[in-house]
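Escalated from tier 1: 28G holo job.
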Amino acid sequence: MSEIENSQSNDGNEYDADSIQVLRGLDAVRKRPGMYIGDTDDGSGLHHMIYEVVDNAIDESLAGHCDLVEVILNGDGSATIRDNGRGIPVDKHPKFPSKSALEVILTTLHAGGKFNNKIYQTSGGLHGVGISVVNALSEFLNVEVYRDKNIYSQDFKKGKPQGELLKLDQKTNKRGTKVTFKPDESIFDKNIIFNIKRLYEFCKSKAYLFAGTEVKWVCDNKLALDNNIPNSEVFNFSNGLEDYLNNEIE
Ligand code: 28G
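Tier 2 regenerated the structure:
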């Protein structure tokens, strides 16, 4: 039995869940990616990479700290997700004083506590397994955090930090988190590419479901043209379900 499965049976035991969280690196994810992100050959896992990061941004919105989520499909097969929330914490992590909290969040499999349960939450429910899973399965991933006028940035390849979290010289008035990643072609079937229409509809439905959160869709021009999808659109449905019924039902 794996440590993750084992931790399930220890539910309610905070200490065990916590120590497992600390022990687990990202190797497990790269060894058995399907278990964490979904099928790597049929597109479901590939799309879950985006759903996972968008859901993290939506969580920050649900926490009441963010009202904008931007999803950008880039021409090179990478995606950028941005929110205007508090920004992933950049201070030193209490349990790993040599690392930032951000680095720990991005490089540790959160197998304990609530994350543990979320893996098994619903039948198809792989949501919420964590941004670290996306990091593990990305050829590259860059995180930028905008906090207290500062811009912080860290790069990863296949989940591994390519240097420490840097505080850039520039100042900003922005707040929030921006994540850019490209799914690793050695993990996901090379013939499978993002279904632009599916992602566009996903963004729209998030805006219906989370009325009050503005979801901005931006797509590379060629991708947009090829798929007959707008290359930029703002979804903001302040009346949620009522808007849905008015707009989408004949
Ligand atoms: C852009 C794409 C995806 C996120 C936040 C903000 C915080 C956070 C995220 O904290 C660690 C563990 C529990 C508090 C929380 C910032 C509190 C204070 C955050 C995202 C710290 C995670 N300041 N925004 N994580 N928690 N956006 N967008 O992932 O105790 S993740």
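The pocket of 28G is lined by residues 53, 56-57, 60, 81-83, 85-86, 88-89, 105, 131, 177-179 (CB under 6 Å).
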